[in-house]
Amino acid sequence: QVQLVESGGGLVQAGGSLRLSCAASASGRTFSRYVMAWFRQAPGKERDFVAAISWSAASTSYADSVKGRFTISRDNAKNTVYLQMNSLKPEETAVYYCAASGAVEISTRPPQYGYWGQGTQVTVSS
Q1: What is the pLDDT of residue 27?
Q2: How far are the Cα atoms of 32, 34, 74 from residue 123, in angstroms, in the given order?
Q3: Residues 114, 4: contact at Cβ < 8 Å?
Q4: For the chain, what is the radius of gyration of the CA atoms?
Q5: How confident is the model at residue 19, as a pLDDT?
Q6: Exposed, middle or buried by CB within 10 Å (0-12, 13-18, 19+), for 112?
Q7: Which residues are within 8 A (CB) of 23 and not within 5 positions of it... i.e. 6 or more apart?
Q8: Quick one: DSSP state of residue 27?
Q9: pLDDT tens digit sequence for 53-98
Q10: What angle do CA 107, 112, 115 make, to 5 degrees?
Q11: For residues 39 and 17, what is the distance between their CA atoms, to the nearest angstrom?
Q12: With contact defined as beta carbons under 8 Å apart, do 17 and 9 qualify?
């Protein structure tokens, strides 16, 4: 079991930056054995993949739309995963969710992630 709590969302102007955090509490399996990811969902739209990171942080994956602007990282000693978001755009306004998967490999598909946080709102004003 993993419980995830996101923080760091808020209101930012276009071109600005935010850093999201996701604190995990895991039982039965250490945090370092979960693939972690960020997804986002805008009103009336599907939940979209943003970024993911492997157990050891050796591998990462990004949606094409955020490559070069967003960075996912993790601190296994702190049971925390981060998403640094730079050059934010108004169309990236959404609820951002942290997710955990017990699989070995990174996935971009929501069904592969068995654990989800409650989400944090990111609003980018134009």
Answers
A1: 83
A2: 30, 28, 24
A3: no
A4: 13
A5: 98
A6: middle
A7: 4, 5, 7, 78, 79, 80
A8: S
A9: 999 999 999 999 999 999 999 999 999 999 999 999 999 999 999 9
A10: 115
A11: 17
A12: no
Rounded Cα gap, residues 7 and 19, in angstroms: 9
CA distance 123 to 75: 26
Q: What are phi and psi of 64, to 5 degrees?
A: -55, -35
- Taking alpha carbons only, the member of 57, 65, 70, 67 closest to residue 106 is 57
The answer to whether residues 42 and 94 touch, using CB atoms and an 8 Å cutoff, is: yes
Instruction: Read off the tokens for 30.
Output: 């250490």
* Residue 50 and residue 113 in contact, taking contact as beta carbons nearer than 8 Å: no
DSSP annotation of 87: S
Residue 4 clears pLDDT 90, i.e. is over it: yes
Amino acid at 69: R
- Residue 88 in 3-state DSSP? coil
